[in-house]
Amino acid sequence: MKLYSGPLSLFTAKVRIGLAEKGLDYERVEVGWSLARRYEPHHPDVVAANPKRQVPVLVDGEVVVYDSTRILEYLEDAHPTPPLLPRGAAARARCRQLEALADEILFPPVWDLIEEGFYPAPPGGRDATRAQRARSTLAGLHAELERELADGEYLCGAFSVADIACFVMLSTATSLGAGPGEEHMRLGAWLARTGARPAVARDVAAMRAHVQALFAGGTGSAAGRGGEPPVYASPAGDA
After folding, report:
1. For the chain (length 239 residues), average pLDDT per consecutive 10?
2. How far from the centroid of its chain's Cα atoms is residue 182's Cα?
3. Cis (ω within 30 of 0) for the bond into 7?
4. pLDDT confidence of residue 7
5. Phi, psi of 233 (to 5 degrees)
6. Nearest to 6 by CA among 108, 40, 212
7. Looking at residue 185, what is its pLDDT?
8. Are residues 37 and 142 in the same domain?
9. Which residue of 14, 16, 116, 154 is 20 to 30 Å from 195, comparing CA positions?
């Protein structure tokens, strides 16, 4: 298998963690990215494989799959053990909805924080209102996810694609100063527990090292909590 991966792609991170959790070997092809030009010019193999011109793209023999959700579904079908989806139609539907919540509901305010707290400020300066609105939106979503978690160890019982997707988004928000507060202690504990899983911890460490190398040259903005650069930073990838 071969994975076309963005070095700071939130959606590629989902797939990398899924592959690691399943213990699958693959060749990682890192596409070019920079603070100034982001993913321009796009990798020609990605352009040929995905009409959206985005990573991640998985190539497994003659099979080519793009979109992080579709890739994780393919991996679940092709390599069902260990599972990343619960058993039963109702449980699987709920898990998929939580993954969609991460990709489609959590991601927009996270992206607002990335634009306002990671990339260099535009000529007109930063939009503090946009950033504050994002934080308020995320606080409401923290409450919703705390309810979904209830007293469980993970969102859908056992560790699943819902945990992967939500972790990637919430860890990014946390590194940008918008993590769960004391009123959402169970969600905060889930975030720490998920981040301690070996597959997740390795990906976080690699991403953090990449970001720190970027900022070592004094470019960009390090507006994360405590002056730390954000763990995940670039949205290039599918929704």
Report:
1. 92 97 96 68 84 94 97 98 97 98 97 87 88 97 97 97 98 95 96 98 92 68 42 48
2. 23
3. no
4. 83
5. -140, -35
6. 40
7. 96
8. no
9. 116
> What is the domain range of residue 148?
89-227
**Is there a domain that residue 32 lies in?**
yes
71 and 115 inside one domain: no
Question: Structure pTM?
Answer: 0.90
Longest dimension (CA), the chain: 52
Tokens 């606080």 -> residue: 139
pLDDT at 215: 74
pLDDT value at residue 222: 41
Q: Are residues 99 and 160 in the same domain?
A: yes
How many folded domains does the chain comprise? 2
| Domain edge (last residue) among 50, 78, 106 | 78
Q: Among 78, 105, 134, where does a domain finish?
A: 78
Residue labelled with tokens 């160890």: 153
**Residue 237 placed within a domain:** no
Radius of gyration of the chain (CA): 17
CATH number (domain holding residue 98)? 1.20.1050.10
Q: Which contacts qualify for 159-162: CB closer than 8 Å, 24 or more apart?
A: 159/21, 159/84, 159/194, 159/197, 160/83, 160/84, 160/85, 160/86, 160/95, 161/14, 161/18, 161/69, 161/72, 161/76, 161/84, 161/85, 161/95, 161/96, 161/99, 162/95, 162/96, 162/98, 162/99, 162/102
235 assigned to some structural domain? no
